[in-house]
Amino acid sequence: LAMPHASQAAPRLLVRPALPDDLPAMSAIYAAARRLMRSRGNLHQWVNGYPSDELLLTDIRAQRSFVCTTEDGQIVGAFCLLCDIEPTYQRLYDGVWPNDLPYVTIHRLASDGRVGGIFRACLSFARSKSAVVRADTHKDNLKMQQLLVQNGFQRCGIIYLEDQSQRIAYQLG
Description:
By secondary structure, the protein is of the alpha+beta class. It is built from four helices and seven strands.
């Protein structure tokens, strides 16, 4: 997740469903986020062009892809919000989920780094859908881990993605 300098005032951000026409802007945001992750030593997350345009279009068509925009409509962030059960969360290792309440899952949260507040806008939107929010991140993504903990998420354990790569799982609520 790319974050601007603290001295920049965060503008009011809006969240709306992503549209197919948003794909170029979303692809640019994910490219910027990958560059920032690499510059911070996170070399193993979002490799080989992940997330692909095909995946982003699948998310858009499934109505689980969202963009964060400034009030004048500039797309400055993107994320996926899964409102169904996350299959990889069915098995949690080295920990337990705090509860079995219905939840939403934040995936693929990214910013282009121009403005702050993307995480807060995403979290506020997620909380409007469910009192319980889950997320996971790579062990090398220290910025995302910091944001999750600062916003009240509890580290719950380890999950494995379909490709068997490991992620740290978190829950709020």
